[in-house]
UniProtKB/TrEMBL annotation:
The keyword Mitochondrion does not apply. This is Serine protease. It comes from Micromonospora azadirachtae. GO terms for biological process: proteolysis. The keyword Hydrolase applies. InterPro entries: Peptidase_S1_PA. GO terms for molecular function: peptidase activity. Gene3D superfamilies: 2.40.10.120. Pfam families: Trypsin_2. Keywords: Hydrolase, Protease.
Length: 335
């Protein structure tokens, strides 16, 4: 199977063997053609017992094979082992994709790379061609596996079919926007791709456990995939504070934290927690030095807009009880 960092990749055993990927802690996606149409169940080798499968009513392997999408119940799957789902926009022609398949059941599996060529005749699938002649190519066992963008690591589609020819090294993936047509609940996952990234979940767990170095280790990789996410910069600032009040840090570090939070506020002007954390950092660092508090933008209204969970998060990691903003957040965290 794939490495331990990709526990969201699954081995699915139905009428035939292939792959799948965990999208939520209870739902995975795979290809419908792997599933016995009479049984509508499969095995997932990392989980116990037969798993219920939902297949769109429009799918028929003989007359209407294009949807070829199945939803698998994976209740009991680890909540922090979810596929990093990409946006609904299709990968551009020339984009290099990473693939993983299980052509030999019970073995370690094979990695491959492909390049996006263009749309299929119906427009619902995307054709991919092998990047290099020596690259292991798509064959039975790859179906249902996630195709990830080689640059961002995000899932942009699902492997569905391939030419069974030594000379025609072409295959097809179902892009995310086509997956959405059959599994509309996927839209909720895609609305915040950062929240579904396993590295983000790991970072939050490390932060909650005050393992700040471990949390910091996750952030550069997350930035490569989620540079437009406001919360990424908010949490980066919170991690850099290392559980210590801003007044005890150097001016250089506080400046870096201000820039991170400034970017968080720019990307999400309505982010009350980012604005309030920025205000608290400035209030504590500059206020205790009797310096003008540049850009002080906290007020009672902003604090009231901070969720109780974010307020508790800030109060717990930024111990600055002399600051009015901190006291306001403390009261907010108490409900």
């Amino acid at each position: 199977m794939s490495n331990h960092h990709e526990r969201w990749r699954l081995e699915v055993v139905g009428e035939t063997t292939g792959c799948g990927f965990a999208v939520t802690p209870t739902r995975a996606l795979t290809c419908a053609h792997l599933i016995d149409p009479e049984q509508r169940t499969c095995l997932v080798t990392s989980l116990s017992g037969a798993r219920r499968v939902v297949i769109p009513s429009t799918f028929d392997s003989a007359t209407n094979p294009v949807p070829d999408i199945a939803e698998v119940d994976i209740s009991g799957h680890p909540a922090d082992a979810l596929a990093p789902m990409g946006p609904a926009t299709r990968p551009a022609t020339g984009t290099v994709l990473n693939l993983f398949g299980l052509p030999d059941r019970g073995q370690e599996g094979r990695h491959s790379q492909a390049r996006v060529v263009g749309h299929s005749r119906t427009g619902e699938w995307i054709q991919i061609d092998a990047c290099q002649g020596h690259t292991p190519w798509v064959e039975p066992g790859f179906s249902g596996g996630a195709a990830t963008d080689a640059t961002t690591g995000l899932v942009v589609g699902m492997v569905v079919s391939a030419e069974r020819s030594e000379t025609q090294r072409a295959a097809w993936i179902i892009p995310v926007d086509t997956l959405l047509l059959s599994v509309p609940w996927l839209a909720d996952v895609l609305a915040d791709p950062l929240a579904g990234d396993p590295a983000y979940v790991a970072m939050l767990r490390a932060l909650a456990g005050r393992r700040y170095t471990s949390a910091l280790d996750q952030l550069p990789d997350l930035h490569s995939r989620h540079a437009r996410s406001s919360d990424l910069y908010y949490y980066w600032a919170l991690v850099l504070l290392q559980g210590t009040r801003p007044a005890n840090h150097s001016g250089e570090l506080v400046g870096s934290i201000e820039r991170l939070l400034g970017e968080a506020c720019r990307l999400a002007p309505d982010s009350a927690h980012a604005h309030t954390l920025l205000a608290l950092v400035r209030e504590d660092y500059y206020g205790l030095r009797s310096l003008p508090v540049a850009g002080h933008d906290s007020n009672g209204l902003a604090i009231r807009r901070v969720s109780a969970s974010h307020a508790a998060e800030i109060v717990g990691h930024v111990p600055a009880p002399e600051c009015p903003t901190w006291l306001g957040l403390y009261r907010r965290s108490m409900g």
